[in-house]
Amino acid sequence: MRKALGRFASGVTIVTTAEDRCETSIHGMTANAFTSVSLDPPLVLVSIANRARMNARITETGRYGVSVLAGDQEPLSLHFAGAPQDDPDLVRFVWRGDVPLLDGALVHLACSVEASHPAGDHTLHIGRVEQLWYDDGQPLVFYTGSFRALELLGRDDPWGF
To answer: Of 19, 64, 112, 144, which sits most exposed with the smallest number of CB within 10 A?
Structure first.
């Protein structure tokens, strides 16, 4: 199952939450199980393993943030996946409302939990997007177990897009 589904290219996100605006209360994790659910109302979904500390933290705080990573942010993804990096300046947060998000990400979504649904060994947390911000750039992509930067074609590409 993992090998088959690993052939579905996905963006890379960091999901964050915090009990308060103190940086010591911030908890984050790398996730690629993220999707848009609805535009009206604006809803997104993250799928979090039941055994992950993040699952309990989202339940406790009732909110989470999603930072969609840029192509040069692989070290951040590794850091929040449990492989701490040596760079002391790597992790920089910005706050949108009461949610910490990663500085330099392509997208910031600050969400309040609308509903949570158990689904096998994961919980699906549906969040209402309260604030959003985005920038142009190349996204970080995960495919067959490795990171890739997606090259965006220009206006003069052969497909005419």
So the answer is: 144
pTM of the predicted model as reported, rounded to 2 decimal places: 0.88
Q: How would residue 9 be classed by pLDDT, with cut points 50, 70 and 90?
A: confident
Residue 9 sits in a domain whose CATH number is: 2.30.110.10
Look at the chain and report how many structural domains it folds into: 1
> Whole-angstrom Cα distance, residue 46 to residue 72?
23
> Is residue 39 domain-resident?
no
Summarised one tens digit per residue, pLDDT across range 140-160 is 988 877 777 766 666 555 555
8 A C-beta contact, residue 69 and residue 102:
yes
pLDDT single digits (tens) 84-129: 888 888 999 999 988 999 999 999 999 999 999 999 999 999 999 9
Tell me which amino acid residue 32 is. Answer: N
Structural domain containing residue 77: 2-32+53-114+132-144
In this structure, are residues 91 and 102 in contact, taking their beta carbons and an 8 Å threshold?
yes
Q: Evaluate whether residue 79 is within a structural domain.
A: yes
The amino acid at residue 105 is A
Question: What is the number of other CB atoms lying within 10 angstroms of the CB of residue 12?
Answer: 26
Q: Could you give the 3-state DSSP secondary structure of residue 150?
A: coil
Q: Is residue 47 part of a domain?
A: no
Exposed e or buried b per residue across 128-141, where buried means at least 16 C-beta atoms within 10 angstroms of its C-beta: bbbeeeeeebebbb
